[in-house]
Amino acid sequence: MRKLIFGMNVTLDGYIAAPGDDLGWSGGEGPDSSSSDELFQWWSDRVGATGLALYGRKLWEAMSSQWPTADQQPGATPAEIEFARRWRDMPKVVFSSTIDKVDWNTRLVTGDAVAEITRLKAEDGGPMDIVGATLAAAAMRAGLIDEYVLVTYPVLVGGGTPFFTALDSWVNLNLVETRTFPGGVLLTRYETRR
Predict the structure, then answer these.
(1) Which of 10, 109, 128, 155 has its CA 20 to 30 A from that of 184?
(2) Cα distance between residue 13 and residue 175, in whole Å
(3) Contact at 8 Å (CB) between 19 and 25?
(4) Could you tell me which residues come within 8 angstroms of residue 193 by beta carbon, excluding any fewer than 6 positions away?
(5) Comparing C-alpha atoms, which of 127, 96, 91 is closest to residue 106?
(6) What is the largest CA-CA distance in the chain?
(7) Cα–Cα distance for residue pair 75/96, rounded to 1 Å
(8) For residue 86, what are the CA distances in angstroms to 25, 29, 33, 171, 176?
(9) What pLDDT digit, counting tens, does each position of 27-58 carry?
């Protein structure tokens, strides 16, 4: 059985995107771009260790607009080149009823996301990462997420897209890792108690 992990950058007040899908707080144009090299390498290593990545449409469109050719851009750093290669090579599934084509080692699922994620979890293989708020919320409500990884930035944005969704019942967690990155970015990793 595969492990399903939900991990994203998040603001201290719990949002993965500020209003208007603004992600500036977590990147080079954000309040503190100095946290980046070590953290970028950590995310790249995660991509390298992921057996299968599950994407919602919005995040898929953002990632697929940048990473397939990022290694060919002038001034690409060695870390960006490595991440682009890892991202292209990583098997991916995109859940969407509004797009009709995906590339770069990716399969499109237009049907019931929870049923497909349940089926994929039952297979043998490496860990699965689920990314995208709407897709992760469906898996969260269905009790499918085994681990939560929050990379918390010391910024408050006051609203936007929340990391966590409303739940029908509590989910008890065990803290399994903490790590501080430059710039006060804090990694916390929790496993779901079953």
Answers:
(1) 128
(2) 19
(3) no
(4) 172, 173, 174
(5) 91
(6) 49
(7) 33
(8) 25, 24, 23, 32, 26
(9) 743 333 445 889 989 999 999 999 999 999 88
Q: How far is CA 60 from the centre of its chain?
A: 10
Structure-token pair, residue 131? 């990314």
Taking alpha carbons only, the member of 178, 154, 190 closest to residue 7 is 190
Strands (E), the chain: 4-11, 15-17, 52-56, 92-95, 106-109, 128-131, 147-153, 161-162, 173-181, 185-192
Token pair for 53: 């990545």
Assess whether pLDDT exceeds 70 at residue 94: yes
* Amino acid at the residue 45: D
Residues 163, 150: Cα–Cα separation, whole Å: 9
**Interior angle at CA 135, CA 187 and CA 27, nearest 5:** 40
- Is pLDDT of 12 > 90? yes
Q: How far is CA 115 from CA 150, 159, 179, in A?
A: 25, 31, 34
Distance CA 91, CA 104 (A): 8
Separation of CA 69 from chain center? 20
Q: What is the mean pLDDT of the chain?
A: 90
For the chain, first and last CA: distance in Å?
14
